[in-house]
Amino acid sequence: MPLQGKLNIVGIGPGSAKYLTQEAEEVLRSSEYVLGYNSYIEQAKPVLEDTKVIKSGMGKEVERAKETVKKAKNNEVSLISGGDPNIYGLAGITLEVARNKGYDKEIQIIPGVTALSALASRLKDPFKGEIIVISLSDYLTHWSDILKRAKKASTEEMNLVLYNPRSKSRPDKLKKILKVYKENKSYDPDFVIGKNVCRDSEELIVTSVSEVLNSEIYKKIDMRSICIVGNKKSNLDKLKNNPEGPYMVSIGPGNEKYTTKISKDLIEESNKVYGSKRYFDSLNLIDKTNNSGVNSSSYSNRVKTRIRKAQQVDGVTSILMGGTSSIYGSSILGEWHEEINQKIPGVSSFQMLAAKTGSPLISDFAITSPIENNWIKTVEKFKKLGVAIVLFNLSRKNYIELKKSVKDQRNFIALGRNVSRKNEELCIDKLSGSIEKNMDSSAKNYTAIISPLSSTYWKEKNYLISKRGYGRKYEY
After folding, report:
1. Cβ within 8 Å of residue 193, ≥6 positions away
2. Of 173, 148, 114, 156, whose CA–CA distance to 386 is shortest?
3. Which residues form a coiled coil (predicted)?
4. Structural domains in the chain?
5. Angstrom distance (rounded) from CA 293 to CA 296
6. φ and ψ at 378, to 5 degrees?
7. How many CA atoms lie within 13 A of 395 on its CB side?
8. Residue 292's pLDDT is what?
């Protein structure tokens, strides 16, 4: 009887094995082979004791993808990707190779905690409003495209997240981006550098764009850094970690398989845990709940009431947050940031949607929501620049409004609700299609990803594949 093949593309999170989701750990332990970049293999080492490991260096991404697909024909094989495989990771490359090789076995993509969520969890309220995420590496994206996206972002009140900000081969391109921001802003934006986030050598520097441009701080930024440029409303101050306060524990998209080890351990260690009933149901928690007196109509007030109640309990307490608390979740705390211990990052609903629908992101992307005044204009502006668009808290009415406004409707869109839960809804179509017919008119919690025009559809797997790399950068 032939061996059953399976291909896993696994996000291992930032810096430490304790940020692995339960699903990632189980899949890695069950795999016969695990392939990955040297430092990622080292990071996942605690769960790779009985696994055949194949390591390779930087720049060998295509070779790793090819070897993974080859071995996965008759074995369960996992290819590990730092952070999340859909955010500057290996999902796109691997799916392209698999499709080109005619791979017909099972494929599973497992999301992981991102560097941006990890850094944001160390700060008070970094993401007030819309977010644009850009990699400054010009190896796979033309520098002219990177600069256009950054210039457009600098004219909006968006939070800018910079991946791969500075390397030996491009030491001064970050300066060009920051000078653009300085020229286009009437104020000096706050600037945060996170180095080795979630590792023992973690370092956070909170400063400003002007200070970075005019001091030795600039030289501290490297490829192990991730940076945030704030807007007028964002609060990039470091979280003070009040030891008397509760932990704000992100539990992921609603299925305990995608809760991280650190979140699970904190919940088990806590004397009391607070949160909505559906969070408790998703984690099968029964005996630690104490939600009496927190039925306020305002979500913000419910969370603040839980903080007050938690402060009256001796020992460790936790408050459950869906997805990851730093994206459309942290702002509810306001001054209450002084009253909490730590924020624990998790997997966001948009990452779960991306994993279920292939590789709709891969490169630069913007995050917005109908709660923002100019959200449709944001979609139109950045879609033209080849940026993927993530939409939170979407309703059927919102989507119809969007379709009426967007002229070019050739892009694919992935739409989901309750993704990874029992009542999951998933759909892939083009903007020109009729995806709204599948939407519940009473629901306001859809998540959507509009892929770049370069994306293609793999019908046999019902996957979107976004190509990362221009011209002939990658040969398959």
Report:
1. 203, 204, 205, 207, 212, 217, 220, 221, 225, 227
2. 148
3. none
4. 6-114 (3.40.1010.10), 122-238 (3.30.950.10), 247-347 (3.40.1010.10), 364-451 (3.30.950.10)
5. 8
6. -60, -45
7. 9
8. 46
Sheet holding 76-81, edge to edge: 52-56, 33-37, 76-81, 6-11, 106-110
Q: Are 33 and 54 in contact (CB under 8 A)?
A: yes
**Mind giving me the DSSP string for 258-306?**
GSBHHHHHHHHH-SEEE--HHHHHHHT--TTB--TT---S-HHHHHHHH
Which tens digit of pLDDT belongs to each residue from 106-142? 999 999 999 999 999 999 988 888 999 999 999 889 9
| Contact assessment for residue 88 and residue 140, using Cβ atoms and an 8 Å cutoff | no
Least-confidence region, from 71-80, 93-102, 157-166, 290-299:
290-299
3-state secondary structure of 458: strand
pLDDT at 2: 46
When computed from its CA atoms, the radius of gyration of the chain, rounded to whole angstroms, is 21
Q: How far apart are CA 335 and CA 283, in angstroms?
A: 29
Write out the two tokens for 432.
């020109």
Does residue 319 register a pLDDT over 50? yes
Phi and psi (nearest 5°) for 132?
A: -125, 130
Q: Which helix (H) or strand (E) holds 396?
A: helix 396-405
Looking from the CA of 132 toward its CB, the CA atoms found within 13 Å total 28
Paired strand residues for 109: 9
Residue 314 CB neighbours (<10 A): 7
In a 3-state reduction of DSSP, which class is residue 342? coil
Of the candidates 99, 163, 139, 88, the one whose C-alpha atom is nearest the C-alpha of residue 471 is: 139
Closest CA to 68 of 102, 38, 44, 34: 34
Query: What 3-state DSSP class applies to 212?
Result: helix
Tokens linked to 30 = 């069950």
Is residue 372 within 8 Å of residue 379, measured between CB atoms? no
* Cα 74 from Cα 2, distance rounded (Å): 7
| DSSP-derived 3-state class of residue 447 | strand
Q: Which CA distances in Å does 326 have to 53, 125, 128, 129, 210?
A: 34, 7, 9, 11, 26
Distance CA 40, CA 352 (A): 21
d(CA 17, CA 112): 11
474: region left, alpha or beta (phi > 0 left; psi from -120 to 50 alpha): beta
Quote the mean pLDDT of the chain. Answer: 91
Distance separating the N- and C-terminal Cα atoms of the chain: 31
